[in-house]
Amino acid sequence: MRFSAFFFDGASRAFHHRPTFSKLVVILAASGGGLVAYADSKSDHAIESSRVAPKKKVVVLGTGWAGTTFLKNLDSSLYDVQVVSPRNYFTFTPLLPSITCGTVEPRSIVEPIRRIIKKKGGEIKFWEAECFKIDPTSKKIHCRSDIGTNLDGNGEFLLDYDYLVIAIGARANTFNTPGVVEHCHFLKEVEDAQKIRRSVMDCFERASLPNLDAEERKRILHFVIVGGGPSGIEFAAELHDFVTEDLFKLYPMVQDLVKISVIEAGEHILTMFDKRITKFAEEKFQRDGIEVKTGLRVVEVADKNITMTHKSTEKMSVPYGMVVWSTGIGTRPVIMDFMKQIGQVNRRVLATDEWLRVHECNGVYALGDCATISQRKVMEDISAIFKVADKDNSGTLTVKEIQDVLDDICIRYPQVELYLKSKQMSDIVDLIMDSKGDVEKESVELDIEEFKRALANVDSQVKNLPATAQVAAQQGNYLAKCFNKMKDCEESPEGPLRMRESGRHHFRPFRYKHFGQFAPLGGEQTAAQLPGDWISIGHSTQWLWYSVYAS
Amino acid sequence: MRFSAFFFDGASRAFHHRPTFSKLVVILAASGGGLVAYADSKSDHAIESSRVAPKKKVVVLGTGWAGTTFLKNLDSSLYDVQVVSPRNYFTFTPLLPSITCGTVEPRSIVEPIRRIIKKKGGEIKFWEAECFKIDPTSKKIHCRSDIGTNLDGNGEFLLDYDYLVIAIGARANTFNTPGVVEHCHFLKEVEDAQKIRRSVMDCFERASLPNLDAEERKRILHFVIVGGGPSGIEFAAELHDFVTEDLFKLYPMVQDLVKISVIEAGEHILTMFDKRITKFAEEKFQRDGIEVKTGLRVVEVADKNITMTHKSTEKMSVPYGMVVWSTGIGTRPVIMDFMKQIGQVNRRVLATDEWLRVHECNGVYALGDCATISQRKVMEDISAIFKVADKDNSGTLTVKEIQDVLDDICIRYPQVELYLKSKQMSDIVDLIMDSKGDVEKESVELDIEEFKRALANVDSQVKNLPATAQVAAQQGNYLAKCFNKMKDCEESPEGPLRMRESGRHHFRPFRYKHFGQFAPLGGEQTAAQLPGDWISIGHSTQWLWYSVYAS
């Protein structure tokens, strides 16, 4: 190894000196099951400046919409921040379908996390690894490097946290359908999109080979999309454009044999959109020759056949060349395990409160596709609300008393506002008057039972947020801002009144602002459902859509 | 399968009708070992127009520089052309090293073969498959589809040819060194370059993980290039620029640990260039901190160590993170098998004559990296040349007689001209006068022995052409032009006099025109060796280099 030393000698001469690296102290610590390397990135601060209180450790899991937006908006000088993700880049997911057809280059839709970190001053640490276990009791996470296998030992390490931000998204949901993992493409990562692109081209090359009969060529050129949601529909539309505009010119001898099918379990595609959009999309697809088959549930995907059942009929089997599976999201194993630990069993995603805090789990936040906010119901807190409003402890509420806490109620329980809107009422007092009948406003007094009756139906307006990039990005932004003002808000809270305890919440709860939902339908046609029941279908809609994300 | 029929019903409605496909007749034929599908792409012509002589079938193997240049320049209306290659695109190989470092996008350096075919009118057929056996006796080739595995049967088929153009290039030469295939990267295809890029990034991510000691990080960040030829040196230079200009900014904590080494078995790098270029490159690399280790032969590549021997010393082992193997070209198995069949044993590449025809193999041409021209020696033909020149059968040659056949000799044996140039003579007569001593030019008469003596040393100038893109492209262009004028030249040959038979050769033999050789050395520095012993080193040289290829 004399030679080796000689070889390495040049390194320090060759490249500039930077002492940064020495700051990382690596300690070995015993943990359940064996030796695990342990990175304590804070120990240097402890030695250097024992007078100043050490910064709180924030660990961010994931570099998708939620994690990256959080990271970008966080004031990283306030915390000791570490990011863990198997992907060292952020992906602009709305353009993934465009990569499958070569409209856009992969490089154009990714942003390296280390570049974001550098822009923020470089203090943040990034580990390209996957968190495979969260231990909320000891406030540690277990990570494993995802890069190659020739890493010393098992490539595992532990990280401490004071605050944990879980934003690892979801995986494709196969509904445990046999053969899906083995035979289908997914459309979640850049690699998926690139694989789909290669696979489409391969199908055309394969169908052009000399040793096949026409049925076999037809099979190879049958492209099936399972799932009629926005991703599946956009991919089908992009594929149709790609095939008719580009591939037919290059493979004229097989163009009669190409077929694109969309299989949807529901009665229509794009059911989350307005009916007018669904109708427009279905008609456009029919004109384009894309077959939309609804009411079909896929029960098995074999090597060359996909089997499905219709409501009342027996099984049907269809030969295919390529299947893209796009039926919504499933739970990652680490979230499953974590939910079991904290007693959130039989759930698909982590439940958080309106401040994105995981229930019963100090210092842990969850956002994006791996979490959902369980909005507190008015009726659960109705006695507490009554008590808070009833300042003079008279046992009844006057209109004045109600109006005094009205803002806090509306902030804490957004369903109240939604309910009023649905009833075309301008004020909670209208609701009360409605329940009390023909009485003078000033003289109204409500007891607890009357108050309950007045608000009995507001919780019907509680809705889960969709698993979209828009929601994730807004949550990341919201949470970063909370972290940035954490100290200020501890001293002067800005949130609504606590109903079951005294004082105020530190922050206002997260509130989603819907900018509309978009569905590109091919041929430069995009349908959009905008806030306030507006519908837009046409050429320019797409640019509107990008601008929503760009903002 | 009722449902399936229903599913496929839409296809003909959905996409335009094109009858082209039906022209392809697929026949099953028994062949040695089992059933093999058999594509007779000519049968339709035979039926449609039995009066007209059917076009000759040209099969082109390979879509590299030689095959693609041939295809682009061929008048494809004259032949029934089929192209077989596992890659349905041409790669601009000089830019492969730029892909490894992300300077250039893969898409920018590839050209789909089907697009080239379309530009030429679409008559040419392309099969994405690999030829695994050439049968020159029955004039058939055996092909196997390379796409996926879910092709019916074994995916094999047979093609007939009248003319076979072999242009399948070479593979990386490992010299059977243990561990090279398993652990090293190569740099021949776009996929190789993309893998290298990912691997470089992975090394930096892996070296940044928390659970490693400094030695391990150093190992991971040791990039080794084996082979000091133009490809290896260019890659080393590109990697250095990528690392210092981009990656150091993103991974400041590990930059002291990075090392790039070039290992060369010879005494210098870039030995095919002028010594001034070699010296410049070695000095530039030293300044850049790239370690150049010469006189070292790699004997084994293990998981994390590369072992080599120096002339007089024992084995040395060096830890590494990534190795790129770039030590020249090796023979593809199908060429090896073909050479065995035609008696070209113990050769590295196919031997052809000066018209790129494979020796003793009717209708088979070979060009590019899989072939080399064995230039006919003057001394082998000296009696025949004498006989042709001695028109009056006097047994002696006058200067006039020699001058009459001089052009033909120089065309047939380019070494004569090279020899004269090396001796700074303007004419073969000078050579003769030189050998005859002080005699009047007009009165010179040479007998066969004197003629032999005069030309005794010219064959020392016979040189093999290098395995470069320039040579391959010129050969492809040359051969296409020969094919385009094959009919004309049969009637009025344009080649030199045949020495051992009567008449003229149909075509002039292939003659390589050297436009210079280029070696990008990083930091926008490129060294160039131009024809006529000119050397250029500097910034603008690179554009000169691209322009050579662009032409």
UniProtKB/TrEMBL annotation, chains A, B:
EC number: 1.6.5.9
Keywords assigned: Calcium, FAD, Flavoprotein, Membrane, Mitochondrion, Mitochondrion inner membrane, NAD, Oxidoreductase, Transit peptide
Record's bilayer topology term: Peripheral membrane protein
Family annotation (Gene3D superfamilies): 3.50.50.100
Keyword Membrane attached: yes
Superkingdom: Eukaryota
Domain EF-hand: 377-412
Entries under PROSITE patterns matching the protein: EF_HAND_1, EF_HAND_2
Short name of one Pfam family: Pyr_redox_2
First-tier enzyme category under EC: oxidoreductase
PANTHER family membership: EXTERNAL NADH-UBIQUINONE OXIDOREDUCTASE 1, MITOCHONDRIAL-RELATED, NADH DEHYDROGENASE
Protein family membership: Belongs to the NADH dehydrogenase family.
Protein name: NADH:ubiquinone reductase (non-electrogenic)
